[in-house]
Amino acid sequence: MNRLAHSTSPYLLQHAENPVEWYEWGEEAFADAKDRDVPVLLSVGYSACHWCHVMAHESFEDALTAQEMNASFVNIKVDREERPDVDAVYMEAVQAMTGQGGWPMTVWLTPEGVPFYAGTYFPKDDRGGMPSFRRVMRAISEAWSDNREEVEAQANRIGQALSTDLSTQDDLATPSDVEAAFKSIASTFDSGFGGFGGAPKFPQQPLLEFLLRITPGNPEAGEMLAATLTSMSKGGIYDQIGGGFARYSVDRSWTVPHFEKMLYDNAQLVRLYMWTGIELDRPDLIDVARETIAYLLRDLRHSGGGFFSAEDADSEGVEGKFYVWSLDELEEVCGEDAPAAIDAWGVTRAGNFEGQNILVRSPRWSRSPALERCRQALLERRSHRIRPGLDDKVLAGWNGLAIRALAEAGAALDEPSFLEAAAQAADFVLRNLVSEGDRQGLLRTWAKGRPGQTPGFLEDYGALGIGLLSLYAATGEVRWFREAAWIIRQIPERFAGDDGAMFTSESDELIKRPRDFFDNPLPSGNSLAAEAMLMLALYTGDGELRDRAEANLAAVTPVLSRYPSGAGHALAVIASIHSGTRELAIVGSDRGPMVDVFWSRYRPHIVLAQSETALDEVPLLVGRQGEPGGLGYVCSGMVCLAPTNSPAALRSLLDNT
Question: What CATH number should be reported for the domain whose range is 10-162?
Answer without folding.
Answer: 3.40.30.10
